[in-house]
Amino acid sequence: MPSVAVIDLSLPYIQRAVLEMLLLSVPAGLLGSWIVLRRLAFFTHAVGSVSFPALVLAAAWGIAPQLAALVAALGFGVAQERIARSRRLPADAATGLLLVGALAAGVVLASDVFESGAEVDTLLFGSLIGLDDRDLWLTGIVAVGAVALDAALRRDWLATGFDPASARALGLRPALADRLLLAGIAAAAVVALDAVGALLVAVVLVVPAATVRLVTDRLGALRLGAVALAALEGVAAVALADALNVGAGPALAVLAGGVFAAVALATAARVRVAAA
Amino acid sequence: MIRVEDLGGGYVPGRDALRDVRFTAEPGQIVGVLGPNGGGKTTLFRALLGELPIRRGEIELPGRPAYVPQTERARLDFPVSAFDVVLMGAYARTSWYRRVARADRAAAHAALERVGLGEEAGTTFGALSGGQRQRVLIARALLQDAPVLLLDEPLSGVDGVSAARIEAVFAELRGEGRTLLVATHDVRQAGEWDRVLCLHGRQIEFGPPAAVLSPETLRETYGAELIVLEGGSRAVGIGHHQH
Questions:
Q1: Yes or no, beta carbons of B79 and A152 under 8 Å apart
Q2: Distances from the Cα of B28 to the Cαs of A56, B60, B74, B151, B167, in angstroms?
Q3: CA-based nearest distance B215→chain A, Å
Q4: Which of A152, B55, B158, B208 is within CB 3.0–4.6 Å of B96 for a Cys-Cys bond?
Q5: Shortest distance, CA B92 to any CA of chain A (angstroms)
Q6: How many beta carbons lie within 10 A of that of residue B175, not counting itself?
Q7: CATH topology of domain B1-65+181-243
Q8: Those residues with Cβ within 8 angstroms of residue B210's Cβ, 6 or more apart along the chain or in another chain
């Protein structure tokens, strides 16, 4: 029986994985808070999924996977906005269509490109051992970018999300601010891919912030709490994944999902007690 | 002064939501904007805010107007207090890298006091009553310190205390020389203000209430939505909101 409580920091790949999770917790907590407040969880999940065919193509053509994923994610964001603006299709239906289309394309392409299923598993669910310096640098850059975006635009995001009809009358630039939010989410999803995989991006970008949202009504506490919880859960997931020899993405999904469920049950019980 | 000349436009090409609007409003005047649902009241406000996708004609304003939306347009599950919402009125003049200025924070508290909600500054917006939420949105517009305020049915469905407070604030704003355009379904109330603008896809009439609020004009404005009471001396528009 492996011990899941111990994390062996002398191993270089564990060091990288822990550092990656700590860096990732910054965009996960800051942008994750806005993802939850602005109801962009499905968009976030889709941004991760649409990068799957791009990752397959990147492997086949020998180009940087992050570059291919970023192009796919931004392309998806633009397509999503165009479809939503045309009002011919509800936005979530458009997301669903693009998402299944991308997954299907990825699977078809992968069957030609890869000889074994293992690589496909890694693209979909992430891996701890494949992280290199470039992955860490990119995650660090996105972490700094997320702090800058949040500092510059949080008031626009707050006012626009609270009351979209008034945002321009308040002298804000809601369209520009929202595009930058979607671009920031796309970048965060791209750097989360190596660790948690294309299908589980929402686990790190959505679940910690959604968990903290259950217990706070304050924006500052939500953002800081989400960063802290994402960091804690990320490091714990690395230990769990290493001990059980599973991907970091599935380990984090089980862990973060369990914490969310426990907090949801506890807050529901507290509300019932308070109401009684 | 607000001057509107031959204003028309809408949301899709070839289909005007509003046309032939021309009126002027002086500083210190309250203009009641009457009309049925879909009659063009909100469209007029969008045009004055410069947000109508298609717009013809001329608009002259003394500065950027403040806008008070219908309270049910706001998200009640957002983690913002009444004070946070009022503070949004100062966002436009706050640099992105600074906190909202101390003077603006003090002004936000003063604005909440003015609408009678000084005690509720820390209360989550969604936990307030409908009338209180409306007053918070008005306090936000007060913080914008705009020469023109556009209010979209601020008195619809609010409690008596809130309505009295809101009307008191209107009187103060009039005294300060600001111009208020107030969309309303309450014909009696509009009759107490300085001017009345009747819209039904186009301008039906504009002028002092005594001249405008005739049974004929109201019938033309509201069509089948109108009930005229007491031999034509009072008329009540029935407002049902479509969402």
A1: no
A2: 66, 16, 29, 15, 14
A3: 34
A4: A152
A5: 5
A6: 9
A7: Rossmann fold (3.40.50)
A8: none
Provide the pLDDT for residue A91. 81
Over residues A232-267, the pLDDT tens digits come to 999 999 999 888 888 888 999 999 999 999 999 999
The interaxial angle of helices A133-162 and A12-37, nearest 10 deg, is 10
Mutate one of A33, A147, A155, A271 to test the B interface: name it (highest B CB count within 10 A).
A155
Q: CA-CA distances (angstroms) from residue B114 to A46, A239, B74, B118, B120?
A: 47, 56, 21, 8, 12
Provide the pLDDT confidence category of residue B243 given band limits of 50, 70 and 90: very low
- Which pLDDT belongs to residue B242? 42
- Which candidate, B71, B197, B92, places its Cα nearest to that of B136? B71
pLDDT for A228: 98
Residue of B nearest to A152 (CA): B96
Q: With pLDDT > 90 as the criterion, what percentage of chain A qualifies?
A: 56
For residue A33, the chain B residue with the least C-alpha distance is B79
Residue A156: its chain B contacts at CB < 8 A?
91
| Residue for token pair 């203009």 | B31
pLDDT at B73: 81
Q: What are residue B2's DSSP bridge partners? A: B25
CA distances from B30 to B47, B110, B192, B209 (A): 18, 23, 9, 11
Give the SS3 label for residue A36. helix
Cross-chain Cβ contact A218/B49 below 8 Å: no
Mutate to test the interface with A, among B75, B87, B94 (most CBs of A within 10 A): B75
pLDDT at position B232 over 50:
no
Which residues of A are less than 8 Å from B52 in CB distance?
Answer: none
Q: Cβ–Cβ of B96/A151 closer than 8 Å?
A: yes
Is A158 in Cβ contact with B75 (below 8 Å)?
Answer: no
Are the CB atoms for A28 and A188 separated by under 8 Å?
Answer: yes
Domain boundaries, chain B: 1-65+181-243
Which residues of A have a CB under 8 Å from any CB of B?
Answer: 37, 151-153, 155-156, 158-159, 161-166, 168-172, 213, 216-219, 222
Q: How confident is the model at residue A271 (pLDDT cuts 50, 70, 90)?
A: confident
Residues of A in contact with B153 (CB under 8 A): none
Domains and CATH numbers, chain A: 12-275 (1.10.3470.10)
Please give the angle made by the CA atoms of A256, A258 and A260, to the nearest 5 degrees. Answer: 70
Q: Do B235 and B220 touch, CB atoms closer than 8 A?
A: no
A79 vs A236 pLDDT, higher one: A236
Decide if B125 contacts B76 (C-beta within 8 A). yes
> What is the number of other CB atoms lying within 10 angstroms of the CB of residue A210?
20
Of A156, A164, A169, the CB nearest to B66: A169
Contact residues on chain B for A40, CB-CB shorter than 8 A: none
B179 phi/psi in degrees, rounded to 5: -105, 130
